[in-house]
Every structure is written in C-alpha cells, then in structure tokens.
Amino acid sequence: MWNNLTWKRRRKMASDPDLIRENDPAPHASGESDVQTGNSNNTIPPAASAPSPPPPETHHHITYKKEKDWWDKIKPFIEIAGVLLLAVYTGYTIKMYRANRDAADAATSAAETASKTLIVSNRPWVTAQVTANGPLFFTPDGDAHLPITYKLSNVGNAPAMDVWSDQELYMAVDIQRDTQAERDRLCGETEKRSVNMGQTIFPGKDSGGNFVTLARKENIDQSIATKGPFLTPHIIVCVAYHSTLNTKLWLHTGMIYWINRVDERGLTYAVKVGERIPSERLSMAISFFRGIIAN
C-alpha cells in the first residue's frame, strides 16, 4: 500500500512541473541518494510530453486569406485593364495635341493670309508702258539705238517710294532664257540707282519721259555669231521701288518687249544688221516668255 501511494505521488509530481520544482530539488543537491529502501523499482520513467496542438485559426486570419486569394486572382486583369486605360489615355492625349497643333497652324496660316491680303490690298503697284518714238538704227561703231517713250503708273492704293526705271535695247540669243536673265541683271542695277535718284508716285498718278535705248556692239556680235545677220531686238524694262508699309523690301516690275519689223502687208520679220527702220514699221509686243513679272 505504501508503495502504491508513493507511486501515485510521484506520478502526480511528474505531471506537475511546479510541484516537482517545489518538492523535489535538483538531483544530488544535498548529496543524498534518491534510492529508497524497500522500493524494488529504482528507475522513474520519464513523463511523456504530448505535442501542443496548433493554435486555432481566428476569424480574421480566415477572412484575410480569402481576401488575398481573391486579390491574387483578379490582380492580372486589373493590371491589364490599367495598361489598356493608359494606352487609351495616351492615344487621346496625342490626338488632342495634334488637333491643337493643327488648329494653331490654321490660325497662324489665317493670320498670315490676312496680313498678306492687307498688304497686297494697301500697297503700291507700279506698271510700265513703252512705245517707240523714233527709228531703230545702227551707228558706225556697231551699236544700235532705239528712242522710246515710257510711262510709269501707280495703280495701287499707297504711295510708291524711291521709284526708278531702267530700259535697255537687247539683242537676244535665246529669246526664252537669256532675256529673262538680262532682266534680272538689270533689276539689280536699277535698285542701286533707285536709292539716290528714285522719286515718289502717289496712287493714281503717272511719271514718265523719253529715253534712247542702247544695245552694245558686244551684245550684237554675240547674237550674230549665234544666229547670223538677222536679229531679234527686245526692250527690257525694270522698275524698282519701295512701299510705305515696308521701306526695306524692294518691289519690282519687269517687262520684256519683243520688237519686229513690219512690212506694208502687216507681216513681221527679223531685223537685219545695219538697216534703219522707222518707228511706224516697228511692232512692239510683250514677250510670250514671262514678259511681265511683279512682286
């Protein structure tokens, strides 16, 4: 019976750690043996330690796990939708940028057109008219002369400033090309003379005079070397002037008159070197090849 009580007490102590620490000091602490007389079983079996069960999942943990699973499923679709939305927004932004740019360009173009229209409608326009008032003749030194009357008219709506004109008798080699090149060269010379000798012509007013044009022997010889003794004379005219709207921009009117000899029947012929042709036997017409230019 004693052994039975002792066994029960030890079993209770083995299952209760606090009781063990309180009633059973560490082995050999006092130097006494733990073997008791009359106890045939000297070995105390170790207490079995059962594994503690895992803590139960709380309601919050279960809900969070479900929410996380739901988010992981729809997250790729949301990302794709975000990319598509960004692409749509970018495309719309580009479209709006282009529309605004086109509108700005259209407004700029309209403003420039309105400005040009205002300038054109309020600027001077100077025209030139030329007629022969004497015979075409050749001098002993090989030059050619033709007296002319010229008239400059301002048909625009503003005064023409620094107006000057030059007229030249020219024997063409190529009536389509070299006459235009000669007119361009003459206009460059006219601009230089206009600065010191030009005058002002008011709207609706005219200015003019008489002038003897000249073709140099060098020009005549060049034409003869290319075309033979029959010449195609031209009167080249250039007018240079300024507008009150812009005193730095040169404005020009350039004209090319083609001269022919006319017989009693009204037929036209080329001019032969050395002959004298009275003004009534001369015809003057604007050239077919850019006979009039203006800017």
Short summary of the structure?
This protein has 295 residues and is of the alpha+beta class. It has helices at residues 2-15, 17-23, 59-121, 178-197, 217-227, and strands at residues 126-132, 137-138, 144-154, 160-171, 199-201, 206-215, 230-231, 233-243, 246-262, 268-269, 271-272, 282-286, 292-294.
Total helical segments: 5
What is the CATH topology assignment of the largest domain?
Immunoglobulin-like
Sketch the topology as an H/E string, one letter per element.
Answer: HHHEEEEHEEHEEEEEEE
Number of strands: 13
| Shape call | elongated
Task: Please indicate the count of domains.
Answer: 2
User: Given this structure, which CATH class of the largest domain is correct?
Assistant: Mainly Beta
Structural class assignment: alpha+beta
Strand proportion, as a percent range, falls in: 25-35%
Helix content: 25-40%
CATH H-level homologous superfamily name of the largest domain: Immunoglobulins
The main β sheet shows up as: 7 strands, antiparallel
Question: How does this structure look, described?
Answer:
It is a single chain. The chain folds into 2 domains: 49 residues; 169 residues, Sandwich (Immunoglobulin-like), CATH 2.60.40.10. Helix 1 crosses helix 2. Strands 4, 5, 8, 9, 10, 12 and 13 form a 7-stranded antiparallel sheet that branches. Strand 8 and strand 9 form a beta hairpin. By secondary structure, the protein is of the alpha+beta class. About 5% of the residues have low confidence.
